[in-house]
Design a protein that fits this description.
- This protein is α/β, with parallel strands linked by helices and 216 residues long.
- It has one domain: P-loop containing nucleotide triphosphate hydrolases (Rossmann fold).
- It is 48% helix and 11% strand.
- The protein has nine helices and five strands.
- It has helices spanning 23-33, 44-50, 59-83, 98-101, 106-112, 117-122, 151-165, 180-197, 203-213; strands at residues 11-16, 38-41, 88-92, 126-130, 171-174.
- Strands 2-3-1-4-5 form a five-stranded parallel beta sheet, sandwiched between helices.
- Helix 8 runs antiparallel to helix 9 (203-213).
Length: 216
């Protein structure tokens, strides 16, 4: 099934949110559910830090880190656009995420990297925002060994990221839930609706997956 845009580019959907939101886990589940239509673009920051890129707190070091993440994210998306046969790219974070981590704030990030915010937003067809568990005061411990944020920092990043990405005309929020399983079900439903309504995946495909989600 070819669901690509008229210009031949795959649809791009950003999965974002504060640390401990569950986006990476959800992204892997999305990929498994729609393996013939969806490819997952891995998180640039995790690739860098797992590969030995130093993680330092000095402002100049953070600048260097976020510049590297921005350019790696862009090039990863371009690489997957050229090499993937799937119609949808699920991006584990987008190019504007670095603005939330920039010491002087988003506007300084845009100016320093010469970013046209409108153009960056237009790179993506939809944004699914996973609210951090930190917003509800829950633990953000998980399987990512490069995560260093505490609850307060995670909640602050969550607010910044929501402000940044809420400018997108197709912005969907998956709120924190006491049940992570329920949160994943909510996220799957949102993705199914996006694929059905915007990307025109046949309703029978969506109905089949949703029946599996709600099966007792």
């Amino acid at each position: 099934m070819n669901l690509r845009k008229p210009n031949g580019r795959p649809y791009r959907i950003v999965l974002t949110g504060g640390p401990g939101g569950g986006k990476t886990t959800a992204g892997d589940i999305f990929r498994r559910e729609y393996r013939d239509e969806v490819v997952l673009v891995p998180e640039a920051a995790t690739i860098l830090f797992s590969g030995g890129f130093p993680r330092c707190s000095q402002p100049e070091a953070v600048h260097a880190t976020q510049r590297a993440i921005f350019h790696l994210q862009r090039n990863l998306e371009d690489l997957y656009t050229c090499t993937s046969r799937q119609s949808v790219l699920l991006c584990d974070r987008g190019t504007l995420d670095g603005a939330a981590y920039w010491p002087e704030g988003p506007q300084h990030f845009y100016e320093t990297l010469n970013i046209d915010v409108s153009r960056e937003i237009e790179r993506y067809d939809a944004v699914i925002f996973f609210e951090s568990a930190a917003v509800g005061g829950s633990s953000i411990e998980g399987g990512n060994p490069v995560r260093i944020e505490d609850l307060e920092e995670a909640a602050r990043l969550d607010r910044r990221l929501r402000d940044i990405w809420s400018l997108h005309p197709c912005f969907e929020v998956i709120p924190h839930s006491a049940s992570f399983f329920d949160k994943i079900k909510d996220a799957l439903y949102v993705l199914h609706e996006l694929l059905k309504e915007q990307l025109h995946i046949p309703p029978r495909v969506v109905a089949s997956v949703l029946s599996d989600i709600h099966r007792p």
